[in-house]
Amino acid sequence: MTKPTDSGPSSRRGVFAAGLAGAVAALAAVYVIAGPNGNTANGESCKIALQAAAAAKPFATGEVAAFLPAQKPLGLSEIAFLGPHDELLKMSDFAGKTVLLNLWATWCAPCRKEMPALDKLQADLGSEEFEVVAVNLDRGGPEKPKAFLQEIGVSRLGYYHDSSNRLLQDLRAKARATGLPTTILIGPEGCEIGTMYGPAEWADSDAVNLIRAAMAPKAGS
């Protein structure tokens, strides 16, 4: 019986090296998909967000019981959308401010329902330290969403938008958006504090108490 030819140790080392290179390439591909912020977010740069998530956790009850405090906060400073004057904005433009980032669309019934509460939350807590940033994802122009907001009396929220849906895609790539509405509480350093999938009564005292608790930890604390 003829035995398979053994190509020797050097050949086996070559096969091993090729396999290792393939594994490294696959890992690099995952890193690129998640983005550098997503892979380093639980490091020193998001330390305050981790403290904020821990502070908010006991307040995830009642209207915000579904709020998920981040265990490994993602860095979100590079996610982008358009501002009220169609200017390109990134979360880094809100540095120093805690942001409640809400993704919504006029075709999303739960989104429509929670807009008045988000508007009231902005009226009650909006300041140099906090802002509700509700980003509209309608595919068409701004006429329909703006008309809807005017119709229901929303006046405190800035009109942020992304008709390309790139923002939603970026957050899906980071496993932080499965549908609408999705709301992410983001700390002053641009790191995720926690995420809510689905609607909430954001003007309720449960939500206000959670946000205030999350805003308590400060740099150097």
UniProtKB/TrEMBL annotation:
<keyword id="KW-0413">Isomerase</keyword>
<dbReference type="GO" id="GO:0016853">
    <property type="term" value="F:isomerase activity"/>
</dbReference>
<dbReference type="InterPro" id="IPR000866">
    <property type="entry name" value="AhpC/TSA"/>
</dbReference>
<protein>
    <submittedName>
        <fullName>Thiol-disulfide isomerase/thioredoxin</fullName>
    </submittedName>
</protein>
<feature type="domain" description="Thioredoxin">
    <location>
        <begin position="46"/>
        <end position="216"/>
    </location>
</feature>
<dbReference type="GO" id="GO:0016209">
    <property type="term" value="F:antioxidant activity"/>
</dbReference>
<dbReference type="InterPro" id="IPR036249">
    <property type="entry name" value="Thioredoxin-like_sf"/>
</dbReference>
<dbReference type="Pfam" id="PF00578">
    <property type="entry name" value="AhpC-TSA"/>
</dbReference>
<keyword id="KW-0676">Redox-active center</keyword>
<dbReference type="InterPro" id="IPR013766">
    <property type="entry name" value="Thioredoxin_domain"/>
</dbReference>
<dbReference type="InterPro" id="IPR006311">
    <property type="entry name" value="TAT_signal"/>
</dbReference>
<dbReference type="InterPro" id="IPR050553">
    <property type="entry name" value="Thioredoxin_ResA/DsbE_sf"/>
</dbReference>
<dbReference type="InterPro" id="IPR017937">
    <property type="entry name" value="Thioredoxin_CS"/>
</dbReference>
<dbReference type="GO" id="GO:0015036">
    <property type="term" value="F:disulfide oxidoreductase activity"/>
</dbReference>
